[in-house]
Design brief:
By secondary structure, the protein is an alpha+beta fold. The protein has 2 domains: 167 residues, GAF domain (Beta-Lactamase); 47 residues, Arc Repressor Mutant, subunit A, CATH 1.10.10. Helices cover 51% and strands 16% of the residues. The chain has a 5-stranded antiparallel beta sheet with strand order 2-1-5-4-3. Helix 2 packs antiparallel against helix 6, helix 6 packs across helix 7 and helix 7 crosses helix 9. The protein is globular, with a radius of gyration of 18 Å.
Length: 237
């Protein structure tokens, strides 16, 4: 049974606190992939990868051999979502690797060696010639429904900031795209008012219009202060 928005919001807040409480970079990224497997219903395995120049792939954390193999094969074969599509699109959804022709060698090798069938990959951040990639895998086809994708996106917003900080990259705020900033702010609003993601996004949009600021600017302020700007009313919620 799917959870109510309030329950999901509470888990998002707990997830953010858990990442902040980790002692050191390795513990932070390890906690992140374990959190995905534990919290997203369709997710059997997860990894965080750093992709350099669409060629070199490093995997700071993988929950198990399936996820580690998926990243290793992308680097070995020179094909896969993190090496091409993810540079142009923020999310890559592969409902069934056995019938997806975008990366025929990578897909067939991964299915044969691990039994993986579904893949959902999020771009965490972009910095110069590097991107951060968060991938979730399942051994079942069509494993990720709309709720799983929304929850994965919300977690990705928290994980992106944690990974950047853990990697000790300079000026990491500039690497976060608007999607990540807005998603994290939505998570804060969801927790504060116990509303779902759609209502949280609508509230931020109204604030953006009322204050004549870009939505990213409003979201950035919410993240920085953890305070919803004045003027929010019950009607807004």
């Amino acid at each position: 049974m799917k959870e109510h928005s309030g329950e999901i919001s509470e888990r998002m807040a707990a997830a953010a606190r858990q990442l902040q409480d980790q002692d050191g970079p390795e513990a932070t990224v390890t906690a992140a992939v374990e959190m995905l497997v534990r919290n997203v219903d369709g997710c059997d395995s997860a990894s965080i990868a750093l992709v350099y120049g669409k060629r070199r792939v490093e995997t700071p954390a993988a929950s198990d051999d399936l996820a580690a193999t998926a990243d290793r094969l992308q680097a070995e074969l020179g094909q896969g979502p993190a090496l091409d599509t993810l540079w142009e699109e923020e999310t890559v959804d592969v409902p069934d690797l056995a019938h997806d022709q975008r990366w025929p060698e990578w897909g067939s090798r991964l299915v044969e060696s691990t039994g993986a069938r579904s893949v959902l990959t999020f771009r965490l951040f972009t910095m110069q010639n590097m991107i951060g990639a968060l991938s979730m895998y399942s051994t079942q086809p069509d494993a990720f429904d709309a709720d799983d994708k929304a929850e994965g996106l919300a977690l990705a917003a928290h994980i992106a900031i944690a990974v950047l900080a853990a990697q000790q990259l300079d000026h990491y705020e500039t690497a976060l795209d608007s999607r990540t900033i807005i998603a994290q702010a939505c998570g804060i609003v969801m927790e504060r008012f116990e509303i779902d993601a759609t209502a949280a996004f609508a509230l931020l949009t109204r604030l953006s219009s009322a204050q004549q600021l870009k939505l990213r600017e409003v979201a950035t302020e919410v993240i920085r202060t953890r305070v919803i700007p004045t003027g929010t009313t019950d009607r807004d919620r």
